[in-house]
Amino acid sequence: MTHIIDRRPAGVDARHSRLAAWMSGITLAGIVMAVAGTFWVWTDKQLVASLLAPHFGLAGHPITVTPTVQLSGLALSAPPVALLVYLLLQARAVFEGFATGQRFTDLVAIRVARIGWILIAKGVLMPLWRAAAGVILTFSNPSGQKILAITIGLDDVLWGIVGALLVAIGWTLREGARIAEENASFV
């Protein structure tokens, strides 16, 4: 007869559950900040010029911030923010599962893989989004001052790599959950 000995100190599971519950709350706060922050930045002309323009590769270039530009920017920001919200909802569900003791399940594996796919999409789509945002910010400029700036940064590549790693971890966790479920049926 084989016995598995759990050598974790008493209270570790409770501490992990509290940490997971805390992280679940942080993800909810992240969702609120992402949505509110996007609205705040795009509705403040000064922030668009000082914060967003350099991020889109337009530092030192003239930009024209009109209400139409602001609305277009908000509309353009909707898909990336939606991806971020979906990612944070997946992370929140994983943390809530951990907090309630669901640590090695097929659902956790699926959610981790989803987070990976979202990060891959972020790495691929962010250069295109930044280029489109740059066009929007210079669209009202006079002829000859309109700019299309396509920037691919190391962070875009890293998002893709980390995303691919999480997809692979999700696949591995799914197989591990299947084996654990199979082993539990023998007992």
Describe the structure.
By secondary structure, the protein is mainly alpha-helical. Helices cover 76% and strands 0% of the residues. The chain has helices at 12-43, 45-55, 67-99, 106-138, 154-186. The longest helix has 33 residues, at 67-99. The radius of gyration is 22 Å and the shape is elongated. The termini are close together.
Computed CA radius of gyration, to the nearest angstrom? 22 Å
- Give unreliable regions as ranges: 1-6
How much of the sequence lies in strands comes to under 5%
Oligomer: single chain
Order of helices and strands: HHHHH
What average pLDDT do the residues reach? 86
| Structural shape | elongated
Biggest beta sheet attributes: none
- Terminus-to-terminus distance: 11 Å
Write down the domain tally: 1
How many strand elements?
A: 0
Structural class: mainly alpha
Task: Give the % helix.
Answer: over 70%
Count of alpha and pi helical runs:
5
Features:
187 residues, mainly alpha, 76% helix, disordered N terminus
Topology:
Blueprint (H helix, E strand, L loop, with lengths): L11 H32 L1 H11 L11 H33 L6 H33 L15 H33 L1
